[in-house]
UniProtKB/TrEMBL annotation:
InterPro entries for the chain: SusD-like_N, SusD_RagB_dom, TPR-like_helical_dom_sf
Organism of provenance: Polaribacter marinus
Name listed for the protein in its UniProt record: RagB/SusD family nutrient uptake outer membrane protein
Lineage: Bacteria, Pseudomonadati, Bacteroidota, Flavobacteriia, Flavobacteriales
Main location: membrane
Stated family: Belongs to the SusD family.
Keywords from the named record: Cell outer membrane, Membrane, Signal
Length: 490
């Protein structure tokens, strides 16, 4: 039995309080975690309060209902990874017996501000922001550097979590980086009143400030679980923020950060590991994830339930999901990743994501872990930034380092040496889509590379459809609940 990160009675009490709070995400006095009357001393005198509060935020990333609904698609970060992968076109809904994701995949939900698909991520990410702001306030505010290492590390995690939430909001609720566009209400403090939409420039500046500070504050932090954010996770998040701006200076900063994470020493997943189930947080190539235990109470409403045929839920029962057929055909036969997908069963990822027992519908209560980030992402992001900034040697080197773990014969990826310019960048983007399929990263790539979304022939809805990244249907709408409760948004 894996160690349970959240076993203390105090932490359980915190969770119970948190999940019984009012559903309105614009509540201006969110006291679910920390008594704001005691914020001047609570964090200093009781580090366990801060730890429990941060653990509560990490737990929110995997818990059901954190988007404010009872929907079977509402289960935290991995739920939005699925939705985003659908919008990228790389994840295909190949049959829809139970009607899950139907209006979303049919591209109707994202243009309806009353649809829960727009509400759930908005509410979830702003709950993360609210909770992070409480931790930051308890430690003295945005501009304070705590005296203790424990205080610094708690503050660093909270700032990184806040930036993580704002980053996903910028990617999902705006078509692209536009410095002057008004995008999101920006809440910097727990006591902020309802805010108007800030410009994207202001939101990005705030994310960069948060993550830069987090990297400094997390210096020397040795985490006891990959669930927690450390310097490497903060650097990777900042790399994604810079890369999403799609500007030369930012690209170079993103590459430098990705290279720093690579230098930390996480090994690339081997061929055996990328076909080994993606179910264990101890996998050396993972550097951020969640150690799922029975006490987390996950079952069919979960990422595993939606994606794994060997878990009792929708993937096995008839809402089948597989790789886009056109993308599948681009995977070379000698590439180990080809075997991640079952051509005889709707191209489901039966060889990538699976419970180790391999019994169809066998896993009822989830113990398999969630992956948020792994080192392959940084190799691919470094290669992408190099390709964009006229460093073909750097791009080819990083790409070949990855492909050396996906092919047994170097001759099968020797073609990379002959690539340059747009052909090299296209290859890096293709390998990113193949390598990170089903992990929630294809949508981010589509947005920052301003690509076309094209669906192959195996999609239930809109097979063969091609639309640009900027199409309204590929970006979420600010939900009705926010419009009704925020007087500054029309």
């Amino acid at each position: 039995m894996k160690r349970n990160l959240f076993k203390t009675v105090f932490t359980l009490a915190v969770f119970a309080t948190f999940f019984s709070c009012d559903e309105e995400f614009l509540e201006r006095s969110p006291t679910s975690f920390i008594n704001l009357d005691d914020t001047g001393t609570s964090g200093q005198l009781n580090p366990a309060i801060l730890d429990a509060t941060l653990n509560g935020v990490y737990s929110m990333m995997i818990n059901t209902g954190t988007g404010g609904t009872t929907s079977h698609e509402d289960f935290g970060q991995k739920g939005y990874d699925i939705m985003n992968d659908f919008l990228s076109g790389d994840l295909a809904l190949t049959s829809n017996a139970y009607n899950r994701y139907a209006s979303f995949v049919n591209l109707q939900a994202t243009v309806d501000y009353a649809h829960n698909s727009n509400y759930m991520p908005w509410r979830y990410y702003y709950r993360v922001i609210r909770s992070a702001n409480l931790v930051i306030k308890s430690l003295g505010g945005n501009d304070i550097v705590p005296d203790s290492d424990g205080g610094k590390h708690s503050l660093g995690q909270a700032k990184a979590l806040r930036a993580y939430a704002y980053f996903y909001l910028t990617q999902m609720y705006a078509p692209e980086y536009d410095a002057t566009a008004e995008v999101l209400p920006l809440y910097k403090d727990a006591d902020d009143p309802v805010q108007p939409q800030a410009s994207m420039q202001l939101v990005y500046d705030f994310m960069i400030e948060d993550l830069t500070s987090a990297i400094s504050l997390l210096n020397g932090f040795v985490r006891n679980s990959k669930t927690k954010i450390n310097q490497d996770v903060a650097r990777a998040l900042l790399a994604y923020v810079y890369a999403s701006k799609d500007e030369s200076a930012s690209n170079l900063l993103a590459k430098g950060l990705a290279d720093q994470v690579i230098a930390s020493g996480y090994p690339l997943m081997t061929g055996a590991e990328v076909t080994g189930g993606f179910n264990n947080i101890s996998t050396p190539g993972w550097f951020w994830g969640f150690d799922i235990t029975l006490s987390n109470g996950l079952d069919l409403i979960s990422w595993w339930g939606q994606m794994d045929v060997f878990t009792y839920s929708y993937q096995a029962a008839g809402d089948k999901k597989g790789i886009d057929e056109s993308l599948y055909t681009e995977i070379k036969a000698s590439d180990i990743r080809k075997s991640q997908f079952d051509a005889a069963n709707s191209l489901q990822p039966r060889g990538k994501f699976y419970n180790a027992a391999r019994v169809v519908e066998g896993q009822r209560n989830i113990e398999d872990d969630y992956v948020y980030m792994r080192i392959a992402e940084m190799y691919l992001l470094s290669a992408e930034m190099s390709a964009k900034e006229n460093d073909p040697t750097g791009a080819r080197t990083r790409l070949k380092q990855l492909l050396s773990q996906r092919f047994t014969n170097a001759a099968d990826y020797a073609y990379v040496d002959g690539l340059s310019g747009s052909a090299l960048l296209d290859e890096v983007i293709l390998q990113t889509r193949i390598e990170l399929w089903g992990e929630g990263k294809s949508y981010l790539s589509m947005k920052r590379n301003k690509q076309m979304m094209t669906r192959g022939s195996n999609h239930v809805f809109h097979a063969g459809l091609s639309v640009p990244y900027s199409d309204d249907r590929l970006t979420y709408m600010i939900p009705r609940a926010e419009v009704q409760n925020n007087p500054y948004i029309n």
